[in-house]
Specification:
With 254 residues, the chain is mainly alpha-helical. It contains nine helices and no strands. The termini are far apart.
Length: 254
């Protein structure tokens, strides 16, 4: 369905509704009272109250009359208002009014005080809510950080396990058999394990190409070390002879 078009007056109505929502106001409400209740419970006003109502009627004449700038219209307005006031004044002694109750007395100051108390309570609740939201956000951030760290640790553990399995695959069978030997942490001495056919013999080690390669590398390192230390073979004797000659020279000078 296509969107409904707004009428020209809709925007003005929205602005008026927003303006009304900003302020607290009393909304008129119509309540229908049975005639039986009016006759049985409602009473007329006392004389002092009737006099005050008449004074209020008379006070309403002046603003209506002063609103008219034309003298003729002012006289007509005054006559109309006076007729209405006289009519109400005649009917006032016979008009029934509801009995005075706590709901019928509107105390503006009390309503303002209650409104201030409610606003203060609302502000406190909002502040508490904001603090709780901030604390929840902080805990959620910490939880997300902990989850990331846990995931990183899990990945590192899996990577380490994969690396260990890879190294075990490349491990020499002799070393693997040595790792599988039983270890007795309670005994301090050496234990000779009976060599069974499942263990490698010296002949098998000699024929192993990897062992031969390692032995060649070790032999090469030993020859290199021997070559490097060959010039230093007579150095100790030379130092001894030089020290003796210095001692003799020092003794002759004394």
């Amino acid at each position: 369905m296509p969107p409904k078009r707004k009428r020209p007056g809709d925007d003005d109505n929205d602005v008026e509704d927003d303006a009304e929502k900003r302020y607290a106001y009393l909304k008129p409400q119509i309540r229908r009272v049975p005639e039986k209740t009016i006759k049985s419970k409602w009473t007329t006003l006392p004389e002092p109250v009737q006099d005050k109502v008449r004074e209020m009627f008379q006070a309403l004449e002046r603003p209506v009359i002063m609103r008219q700038s034309n003298e003729r219209k002012r006289i007509e307005a005054q006559s109309a208002v006076q007729a209405v006031v006289r009519n109400l004044g005649k009917r006032l002694p016979r008009m029934p009014f509801p009995p005075i109750t706590n709901d019928s007395n509107f105390d503006y100051e009390s309503a303002l005080d209650e409104h201030r108390i409610l606003e203060a309570s609302l502000a406190t609740i909002k502040d508490s809510t904001d603090l709780l939201k901030a604390e929840i956000a902080k805990e959620e951030a910490l939880l997300a950080s902990d989850k990331k760290e846990l995931q990183a640790m899990d990945k590192n553990a899996k990577r380490a396990e994969a690396e260990r399995k890879r190294l075990m695959k490349n491990e020499h069978p002799v070393l693997r058999q040595l790792d599988e030997l039983p270890q007795d942490s309670g005994s301090s001495g050496f234990t000779l394990v009976d060599t069974k056919p499942n263990q490698a013999t010296l002949d098998e080690l000699d024929t192993d190409p990897e062992i031969q390669r390692l032995m060649k590398q070790l032999h090469g390192h030993l020859q290199s070390m021997q070559t490097n230390t060959a010039p230093l073979v007579g150095l100790r004797d030379a130092i001894t002879r030089s020290q003796a000659a210095l001692d003799i020279f020092a003794a002759s000078n004394d």
